[in-house]
Amino acid sequence: MDKRTLQIFLALTGISVTLTLILAYKSYPLYQYWTDHYKTPNMHRITEAFITPIKDSQHFMVSAFFDHRLDGVIRVISIINRNSLQPLYCVYCSTEQVCKTVQTDVQIHDDHFGFPFHVSDVICKGRHMQNATHVLISTKESNNSVTEYLPIKNQVVMDTFKYDFTVCISNLFNNYNNVLQFAQAMETYKLLGVQHVVIYKTNCGPDLEKLLKHYETEGILEIIAWPIDQFLNPSSGWNFKEYKGDIHYYGQLATLNDCIYRHMYQSKYVLLHDIDEIIMPYQHDNLPSLMEDLESAYPSVSVFIFESHVFPTTQFEESGKFKRAEWNNIPGVNIMEHIYREPNPKNSHNPTKMIVNPRNVLQTSVHTPLKIYGYSHIVEFHVSRMVHVRQPVQPNLTKEELFVDKRMWDFEEKLIPNVDRALNLSGF
Q1: Mind giving me the DSSP string for 106-133?
Q2: Euclidean distance between the first and final Cα of the chain, in Å?
Q3: What total of structural domains would you count in the chain?
């Protein structure tokens, strides 16, 4: 082989080797990870995680939204350590990778119950925010490192909604495994007119996991991973002096506020309550007819508040008509058996829950809103109230001191076969 031929051969061999290495690199999982997470030339990683540490701080980002009600500012729902406050900056970027940095207004919600970490709104105000697509909160005025940005949601104001009613269930934790009550509640929600249920899940029991997968496959349930216990020591109660911990009730208030903003332009109404609670109309067949009348009577109201009424699981109806053999081996509470309602104690706080117009809510607590546009209204007891089947709040009351309330029985014809079907499809 002469010298010229050898040079051509080596050149072609080099091209072949280079192409082989490139193809091999592209098939390697690291390449896929890199292209999935670092799609932009300036290495901005867009994360869909729901808890993102803010670098060089003790704070966390949760989610980011345009707030068109406040001239298009960016609202970053965050978890802030109240004992470790520091200046924070907002870095917001467009698809063209033009990034700007502005100072922030950190608004810690008032209802922290004494816990050091609490949900906060980090408000970013700046020029040309309407072109921003992703954002991060930083402790530095300039941030050139590869870091995680949040996608900015609610970019477009919508006046038509995918759902009429969305239920936001704030937290599942402590390996919650109350399968039967969960299925009964979900099927009742559907009969009342709910199309969408959102659950923030830290963990649950293995039996409930099967039921969750069924409802997720069915399309009514959205499960949001909420690994708060990987970042903080969450409290299993609401009172810091009694329960201790870093953050109130597994970050319940962060999830409720996130759920409102997440569904601001997806759902006409958002219901804020727990999975063992049902906001029950007593003069209407369903939620649409209830809300139509309430909105007609109270056009300036943005938040409708419903009294909670406890149906203790220690008292059973006596005929045993709903003590079904088909449910004997299903873990959890059978709410159809509990028709006795506690009288609400006088001069005590009622842990009310809410149906809200999410477009008029700025901040919410668990039982009442914190900041809203418009007014709130407590719905009359005889019109609608909340059925809460749980351990008794007043355990010393006898059955004779309780009220009989059989409202749940009005749904038995459809509810029981629907629950059976859900359990069967879940593998029980």
Answers
A1: EEE-S--TT-SEEEEEEEE--TTGGGEE
A2: 76
A3: 2
Tell me which residue range forms the domain holding 301: 163-425
Q: Which two tokens stand for residue 369?
A: 């809103």
Residue with tokens 């329960």: 243
pLDDT tens per residue across span 353-405: 999 999 999 999 999 999 999 999 999 999 999 999 999 999 999 999 999 99
Question: How many angstroms separate the most distant Cα atoms in the chain?
Answer: 109
Of 270, 197, 271, residue with least CA distance to 422: 197
List the one residue out of 394, 336, 390, 327 whose CA is nearest residue 176.
Answer: 390
Domain-ending residue, one of 153, 183, 198: 153
CA atoms within 13 A on the CB side of 425: 15
Nearest to 180 by CA among 313, 298, 31, 76: 313
| pLDDT at 31 (0 to 100) | 34
Cα–Cα nearest to 81, from 111, 61, 59: 59
The rounded distance, in Å, linking the Cα atoms of 408 and 297 is 26
Q: pTM, whole model, 2 decimals?
A: 0.88
Rounded CA-CA distance 43/203 in Å is 33
Phi/psi of residue 257, nearest 5 degrees? -65, -40
* Rounded mean pLDDT, 325-337: 97
User: Is residue 225 domain-shared with residue 120, that is, in the same domain?
Assistant: no
